[in-house]
């Protein structure tokens, strides 16, 4: 019983990592109705920028704010620069661009900062909480995730820009007719997703250590969490992320023989099962298609 | 329509093939060797999941440059060609073929990774081209009977596992051991070495085995299970990133077992610092190379040479990383092998020289640890020194142990 | 009217005289491919064989995504299944390499079909995610300790390379090249015929307007699953060939980077344009090498930049480019006024 509780708590802690990432994924989905496979790499790159600032002696919170701002700007610029020229290209070509961005960010990060792991400081201190199952940092990470979640929720539900962004993504033509500048909405979405990604990266790095490949597997678990919760729901993303963390831990501990080997496939099985049974996720909005 | 063209194609091929029968023959004994140069190939993961190890390749490249500046070896300049395989076996095969057939190298040196080396092993032996000092401790690469052209370099993982087993049997015979291991060749080799070394007591002493995959973001779940198993010895068979996470998590969990750390991850700068120096106090490991952070080597001749080398030839390299030490040491071994082959500078000559290293000291091996090979012993390094971390640096204790006794 | 079909290349048959030009181009390509090994070193022949193998794999993917409109980022998984089938049959069961191809084809067809069934409920981005998940999970499955006695676990399986039969004076590499070329041509011929048949038109109808297709009585579920199966079979056969040529299979050979590479090859070649697979295959094999040549440390970044530039130049892939050029040429030589 004790192990069960411990694994669940530990799962929540790991799940917080996935939830952070899932929020960035939901953000970009809300903006472009697509999944950006380079999201993780952009988050990793932002975290390296933060690390560099810290290495140059900038105090933590200043570096944090600077990184988030730079990431926002960076995301915006990437969208305007890279995607605008091909806005009319088919969807699959866009996906190839995501892949290209993935390669570029990963390679650049390795080139500039090399591939060895680097410790990344946490603003929440180290030590132990809850009998050692969670560190203050992991608790802090959960808190930050919830704050970002709340901000996002308010943004989408209660602000005009949030509504405009959702409209632009759902139906660009109609949105244009109503006067929404779809191009800038998309760019804004990218900027916000990059900013959230930067926050996620800075929260995740103290736990898993900073290196260019740190986000590759986390991205997948983040996708699982986002899909489980529903790609249209930030709250769902967080719940989904936490759930994936717990499921993964329990699977690894209790499924005999192959449990630990199958942690990743279990996450994927979760994605597929949810997608088949309830494509809109636990809390997502169902889309209805007109014939 | 298509059938005619296929037939035409085959006829054409037959006609011209007679001129091309000199294909697929084994590489000539002097391929890649001229009076003035020797071409040496290298395959490393510059990209992909194992890209952290590319520092070794960069160190190798720098060392070859230093050799060339000092007149080369056997009067010949070294043309060092290094390619990226992204840790992918098919790519490794492609790069190996490129090196051997297109670039016509004399030998492939220090290629990294068990999967990549497994993929090219048969090919290299078929082509009678030396596959020297592969950068992996998998025990399968020291098999002169079946693969006479392949040789490892670092102490193999199985032997190291046995060394830890003997330590435990002597000092903690009632220990309860929990093992965290990477679920691949590397991790399983260590685990098997431990089990073989413990003999019949293995099943009673090892109370928990927790594998992890490189795709796991953290090993927290496994550490929780290990603590819960009641183990009082923790055998940490993980690569740097995960080893650091494990040590950190153990401290956070308030779990204080005797920790045995595999030598792949015992770099102070790359592992213990991120994990936390306090948390790493008391960790035991084994080494066969000098630690650049250790003040006892401050005035050591070999260490001074290494420092000078790094400053001049690889200033961007990380002096805190064990990879730069490793690269220098393995390159120096190659230098000695080549120099020993001056009289018979051919593929077989080089292989013979490699199989004839007797009590060789390297700049970066601590006293007592030497390189030894013979026609039946293709494990150049088998000696290791047990070390304990005191919170600041690794302290040697006990005698140099040889994995060879336990072979 | 017929000129347009020249560009689209695989839709309904047009007047015979127009088909002539397209066929001549095809014959020329085949002749060049057949003649190449005679002038090149064994290593380059090996690379070209790998290229042909990827062409077959991409062809399979094109059938699914280009013709049937189902997004797949997981074809590396089927490639892996085909490769392991060949390896296990050759090493454990002692089967001759030639027979492993149909075996791989059948097994992959079944797995593709089975995967296609739950995939029926998924569209667009969700299908992409599910297939992506499959691709990422495949190496884990291959490493499973329970099936290690057959798969060799992490160590993988080493395979013997076959010699040219009947004592033909061909090197192993040349023989395997011609073997792959013949298999590739057969599969291409099959694909072309499939696409221009009724089933092909049904598949394309499902792609273009699923609701209308269903309304017209096409059994969407069956066709979509069959498309998955056939597509997987193609890629599986490519995988089997790959295993024979590389002589080694291991879980690390089949990471999701492979699926991504196949997908990129598909888009670069032109989604829906079958001959584009040749361009895609060449891209997959040669562009990473070019990128590495430029700058080893930044090879990934160079590759990404090349990819972006290519998409800018040809947003719809090589197929789109060819179509535009064919249109342009057609318009200049038309006797009738432009519409």
Describe it for me?
The complex is a heterotrimer of chains A (291), B (407) and C (339). In chain A, 58% of the residues are buried. Helix content of chain A is 73%, strand content 0%. Chain A has one domain (9-214). The longest helix of chain A has 31 residues, at 2-32. Chain A is an all-alpha fold. Chain A has helices at 2-32, 39-55, 60-83, 91-113, 136-158, 160-170, 172-177, 182-208, 215-229, 234-254, 263-277. Chain B is an alpha/beta fold and 407 residues long. Chain B has a four-stranded parallel sheet with strand order 2-1-3-4, with helices on both faces. In chain B, strands 6-5-7-8 form a four-stranded parallel sheet, with helices on both faces. Chain B has a three-stranded antiparallel sheet with strand order 9-10-11, covered by helices on one side. Chain B has helices spanning 2-17, 54-69, 89-102, 114-126, 157-171, 185-198, 202-205, 220-228, 240-253, 268-275, 301-313, 322-340, 347-354; strands at 37-44, 77-84, 107-109, 131-132, 177-182, 206-212, 233-237, 258-261, 284-287, 383-389, 394-402. The model of chain B is unreliable at 1-25 (pLDDT under 50). Chain B contains 13 helices and eleven strands. Chain C is mostly helical and 339 residues long. Chain C has a domain at 41-162 and 171-255. In chain C, strands 1-2 form a two-stranded antiparallel ribbon. In chain C, helix 1 runs antiparallel to helix 15 (317-333), helix 3 packs across helix 12 (256-269) and helix 12 (256-269) crosses helix 13. Chain C is globular and about 55 Å long. Chains in contact: A-B, A-C, B-C. Chains A and C meet through helix 4, helix 9 and helix 11 of A and helix 6, helix 12 and helix 14 of C.
Secondary structure topology:
The complex is a heterotrimer of chains A (291), B (407) and C (339).
Chain A: H1 2-32, H2 39-55, H3 60-83, H4 91-113, H5 136-158, H6 160-170, H7 172-177, H8 182-208, H9 215-229, H10 234-254, H11 263-277
Helix pairs in contact in A: 1-5, 1-6, 1-8, 1-9, 1-10, 2-3, 2-4, 2-8, 2-9, 3-8, 5-6, 5-8, 6-8, 9-10, 9-11, 10-11
Chain B: H1 2-17, E1 37-44, H2 54-69, E2 77-84, H3 89-102, E3 107-109, H4 114-126, E4 131-132, H5 157-171, E5 177-182, H6 185-198, H7 202-205, E6 206-212, H8 220-228, E7 233-237, H9 240-253, E8 258-261, H10 268-275, E9 284-287, H11 301-313, H12 322-340, H13 347-354, E10 383-389, E11 394-402
Parallel strand pairs in B: 1-2, 1-3, 3-4, 5-6, 5-7, 7-8
Antiparallel strand pairs in B: 9-10, 10-11
Chain C: H1 2-8, H2 16-35, H3 42-67, H4 75-91, H5 97-119, H6 124-143, H7 148-151, E1 157-158, H8 172-195, H9 198-208, H10 210-215, H11 220-246, E2 248-249, H12 256-269, H13 276-294, H14 299-313, H15 317-333
Antiparallel strand pairs in C: 1-2
Helix pairs in contact in C: 1-15, 3-8, 3-11, 3-12, 3-13, 4-5, 4-6, 4-11, 5-11, 9-11, 12-13, 13-14
């Amino acid at each position: 019983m004790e192990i069960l509780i411990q694994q669940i708590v530990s799962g929540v802690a790991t799940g917080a990592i996935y939830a952070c990432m899932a929020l960035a994924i939901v953000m970009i989905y809300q903006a472009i109705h697509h999944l950006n496979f380079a999201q993780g790499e952009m988050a990793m790159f932002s975290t390296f920028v933060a690390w560099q600032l810290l290495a140059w002696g900038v105090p933590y919170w200043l570096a944090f704010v600077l990184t988030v701002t730079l990431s926002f700007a960076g995301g915006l610029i990437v969208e305007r620069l890279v995607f605008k020229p091909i806005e009319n290209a088919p969807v699959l070509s866009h996906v190839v661009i995501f892949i290209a961005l993935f390669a570029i960010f990963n390679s650049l990060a390795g080139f500039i900062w090399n591939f060895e792991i680097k410790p990344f400081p946490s603003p929440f201190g180290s030590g132990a909480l809850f009998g050692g199952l969670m560190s203050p940092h992991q608790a802090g990470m959960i808190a930050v995730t919830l704050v970002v979640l709340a901000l996002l929720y308010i943004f989408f539900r209660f602000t005009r820009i949030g509504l405009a962004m959702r409209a632009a993504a759902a139906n660009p033509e109609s949105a244009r007719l109503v006067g929404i500048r779809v191009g800038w909405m998309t760019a804004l979405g990218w900027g916000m997703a990059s900013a959230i990604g930067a926050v996620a990266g800075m929260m995740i790095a103290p736990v898993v250590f900073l290196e260019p490949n740190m986000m590759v597997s986390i991205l997948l678990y983040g996708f699982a969490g986002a899909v489980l919760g529903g790609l249209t729901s930030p709250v769902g993303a967080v719940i989904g992320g936490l759930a994936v963390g717990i499921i993964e831990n329990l699977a690894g501990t209790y499924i005999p023989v192959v449990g630990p080997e199958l942690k990743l496939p279990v996450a994927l099985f979760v994605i597929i099962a949810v997608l088949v049974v309830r494509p809109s996720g636990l809390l997502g909005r169902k889309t209805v298609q007109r014939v | 329509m298509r059938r005619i063209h296929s037939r035409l194609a085959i006829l054409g091929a037959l006609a011209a093939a007679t001129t091309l029968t000199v294909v697929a023959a084994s590489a000539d004994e002097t391929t890649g060797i001229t009076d003035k140069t020797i071409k040496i190939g290298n395959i490393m993961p510059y990209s992909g999941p194992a890209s952290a190890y590319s520092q070794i390749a960069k160190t190798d490249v720098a060392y070859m440059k230093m050799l060339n500046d000092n007149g080369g070896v056997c009067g010949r300049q070294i043309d060092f060609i290094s390619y990226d395989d992204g840790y992918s076996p098919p790519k490794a095969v492609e790069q190996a073929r490129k090196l051997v057939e297109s670039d016509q190298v004399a030998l492939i040196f220090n290629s990294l990774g068990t999967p990549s080396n497994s993929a090219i092993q048969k090919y290299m032996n078929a082509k009678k081209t030396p596959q020297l000092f592969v950068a992996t401790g998998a025990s399968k690469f020291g098999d002169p009977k079946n693969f006479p052209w392949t040789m490892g370099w670092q102490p193999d993982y199985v032997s190291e596992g046995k060394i830890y087993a003997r330590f435990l049997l002597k000092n903690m015979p009632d220990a309860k051991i929990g093992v965290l291991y990477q679920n691949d060749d590397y991790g399983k080799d260590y685990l098997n070495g431990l089990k073989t070394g413990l003999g019949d007591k293995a099943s009673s002493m090892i109370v928990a085995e927790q594998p992890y995959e490189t795709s796991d973001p953290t090993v927290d779940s496994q550490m929780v299970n290990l603590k819960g198993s009641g183990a009082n010895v923790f055998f940490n068979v993980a690569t740097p990133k995960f080893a650091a996470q494990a040590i950190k998590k153990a401290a956070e969990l308030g779990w204080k077992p005797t920790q045995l750390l595999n030598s792949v991850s015992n770099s102070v700068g790359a592992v213990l610092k991120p994990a936390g120096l306090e948390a790493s106090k008391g960790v035991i490991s084994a080494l066969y190379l000098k630690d650049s952070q250790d003040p006892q080597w401050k005035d050591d001749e070999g260490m001074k040479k290494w420092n000078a080398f790094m400053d001049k030839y690889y200033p961007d390299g990380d002096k805190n990383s064990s990879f730069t030490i490793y690269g220098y040491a393995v390159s120096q071994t190659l230098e000695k092998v080549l120099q020993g082959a001056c009289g018979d500078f051919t593929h077989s000559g080089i292989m013979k020289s490699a199989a004839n290293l007797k009590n060789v000291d390297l700049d970066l091996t601590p006293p007592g640890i030497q390189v030894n090979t013979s026609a039946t012993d293709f494990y150049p390094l088998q000696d290791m020194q047990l070390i304990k971390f005191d919170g600041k640096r690794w302290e040697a204790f006990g005698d140099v142990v040889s994995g060879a006794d336990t072979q | 009217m017929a000129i347009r079909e020249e560009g689209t290349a695989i839709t309904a048959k047009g007047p015979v005289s127009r088909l002539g030009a397209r066929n001549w181009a095809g014959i020329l390509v085949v002749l060049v491919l057949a003649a190449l090994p005679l002038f090149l070193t064994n290593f380059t022949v090996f690379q070209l064989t790998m290229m042909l193998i990827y062409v077959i794999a991409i062809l399979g993917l094109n059938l699914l995504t280009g013709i049937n409109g189902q997004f797949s980022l997981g074809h590396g998984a089927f490639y892996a299944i085909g490769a392991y089938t060949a390896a296990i049959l050759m090493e454990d069961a002692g089967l001759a390499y030639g027979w492993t191809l149909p075996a791989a084809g059948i097994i992959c067809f079944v797995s593709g079909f089975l995967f296609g069934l739950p995939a029926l409920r998924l569209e667009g981005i969700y299908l992409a995610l599910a297939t992506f998940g499959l691709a990422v999970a495949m190496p884990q499955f291959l490493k499973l300790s329970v099936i290690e006695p057959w798969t060799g676990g992490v160590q993988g399986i080493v395979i013997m390379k076959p010699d040219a039969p009947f004592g033909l004076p061909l090197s192993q590499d040349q023989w395997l090249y011609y073997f792959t070329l013949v298999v590739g041509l057969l599969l291409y011929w099959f694909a072309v015929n499939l696409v221009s048949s009724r089933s092909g038109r049904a598949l394309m109808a499902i792609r273009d307007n699923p609701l209308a297709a269903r309304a017209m009585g096409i059994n969407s579920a069956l066709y979509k699953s069959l498309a998955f199966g056939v597509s997987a079979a193609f890629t599986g056969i490519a995988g089997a060939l790959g295993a024979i040529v590389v002589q080694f299979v291991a879980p690390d050979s089949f990471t999701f980077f492979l699926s991504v590479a196949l997908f990129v090859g598909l888009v670069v070649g032109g989604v829906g344009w079958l001959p584009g697979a040749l361009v895609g295959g060449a891209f997959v094999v040669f562009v990473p090498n070019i990128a590495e040549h430029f700058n080893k440390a930044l090879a990934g970044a160079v590759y990404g930049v090349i990819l972006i530039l290519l998409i800018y130049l040809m947003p719809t892939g090589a197929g789109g480019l060819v179509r535009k050029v064919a249109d342009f040429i057609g318009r200049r030589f038309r006797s009738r006024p432009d519409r």
